[in-house]
Amino acid sequence: MNYYNYFTEIEDYFVKRRGKHLLVSPMDWHLIASWRNAGVPLNVALRGIDIAMDGYFARHTHGVSKVNSLCYCHDAVMEAYAGYLESRVGGASAESGSATTGIAGSPDSSEEEFGKDAILAFLSEKISEIESLLAKQYECQSTENIERVLLMLREIALNVQNGSMPDTEALERDLGILDNLLCEELWLRLNTEEKDAFEKEAKNDATLRIYKKQLPKESYVKMRENFFRDKTRKKFQIGELSLFRI
């Protein structure tokens, strides 16, 4: 990840999570520089921003953030970085296989356990899927955003490979960030007919109809969004970037 991309990825993600466009101030750029100079990996910085903004929106339900500076996220980024450093020096027992967690089901699954090798295999599989997607020809379409996701996914895999057994909760959050970015890009590649077909399927889906009556509006909207994302991933033959969902 070069110097410029580190800054722009953080700026773009902060603005996206904030929910309203904002020109990042020179002071914020100095803050990003301090994160980079301290060795904070990009995925860890994005994770900290994600945690900070999740906390903000949990306390403020108006939908649009009034957070006007990255300084709001600094403590969360530093906490995420501290956890990252701790995982790299304190994971001997996890590497030996004494600490395992379920995969492809839930974090507590006992049917299938995994360690560092299984995580690396999972990441390698997802990297290959995205590489295959990029290998296809898209007329008049830029692949820049998909390449950004691929680059960050490769960096995460490299960090896992060079470190000890990773914190699976933190890793899942990182993958969730990339999955959101990827799904947004893939949705833009659907034509109007395909989007309309998905809308029709959602309208006729029995499960969604039931939950529309039973769930709070916010939960239903999230479920409907996941429905569209699953359809979009299937269209492009891309699996979800998640350790804990089949």
Describe how the helices and strands are arranged.
Elements: H1 3-18, H2 26-38, H3 42-59, H4 74-89, H5 92-95, E1 101-102, E2 113-114, H6 116-135, H7 144-162, H8 168-188, H9 192-204, H10 206-214, H11 217-236
Antiparallel strand pairs: 1-2
Strand content: under 5%
- DSSP summary, beta strand count: 2
Mean pLDDT: 82
Distance between the termini: 30 Å
Strand order of the largest sheet: 1-2
Determine the structural class based on helices, strands and strand pairing: mainly alpha
> Could you give a short account of the major beta sheet?
2 strands, antiparallel
Radius of gyration: 19 Å
Q: Segments where pLDDT lies below 50 for 5+ residues? A: 91-113
| Element-by-element helix/strand order | HHHHHEEHHHHHH
Question: What's the helix count?
Answer: 11
Helical percentage: 55-70%
Using the alpha-carbon principal axes, give the shape: globular
